[in-house]
Amino acid sequence: MSTPGEGIDEVFLQPGDFHFGYGQTRISTLLGSCVSITLWHPRRRIGGMCHYMLSERTRPPVAALDGRFGREAFALFLQQVAAAGTRPEEYQAKLFGGANMLGDLAGGGGDIGALNVALGRQWLAASQIALIAEHVGGSGQRKIRFDLWSGDVWLASARNAEAENRSVHG
To answer: Which of 14, 26, 62, 92 has the least CB density, counted as fewest CB within 10 Å?
Structure first.
């Protein structure tokens, strides 16, 4: 695992949470059908991660953005990218999650995980953000750790049980 030294700020994202920052920050989360996208600016060494549960909702015009919904999590990213004086196409993205946690029990209601992944890919392409790596689909949970100082993302998953320290590279 990449090591920045002492004083790591640990941020754990619950479903719907979002974090954007810099420095010696490690963002982590646990995913099932939810999706996390990491954005990293390799020159400025800033970035963030979202953890969304569903693709979208009908949002009242006065309602605050809600990171539980993919389209709104993306809007949060774009706000932070602009606030940092950067452009979306300067970032690299990695996409995780979207497991089918219900298997055949979904009852024809659609695979929420697959819909979440499709939305993430669509948004990244529309924003001209390079998707350099992904680990999506399947049926198990994933634990993700994103080190902002290096851009490294570490993955542990049911498909890769021995990979607690497996880095996901583009």
So the answer is: 62
Confidence of residue 139 (pLDDT cuts 50, 70, 90): confident
Asked if residue 114 belongs to a domain, the reply is yes
Q: What global pTM score does this model have?
A: 0.86
Backbone angles phi, psi at 60, to 5 degrees: -60, 145
Which residues make Cβ contacts (< 8 Å) with residue 2, sequence separation at least 6? 147, 149, 150, 152
Q: Give the domain CATH number at 161.
A: 3.30.1330.200
Residues in the chain: 170
- Residue 122: both structure tokens together: 């669509």
* Cα–Cα distance for residue pair 50/68, rounded to 1 Å: 9
Which residue, among 130, 129, 137, has the nearest Cα to 158 in the 3D structure?
137
Checking DSSP bridges between strand 9-13 and strand 18-22, what pairing results, if any?
unpaired
Of 51, 71, 38, 62, nearest to 153 by C-alpha is 38
> Range of 95's domain?
9-167
Query: For the segment 4-47, what is each residue's pLDDT rounded down to a tens digit?
Result: 567 899 999 999 999 999 999 999 999 999 999 999 999 999 99
| Cβ neighbour number for residue 143 with a 10 Å cutoff | 14
Does residue 156 sit within a domain?
yes
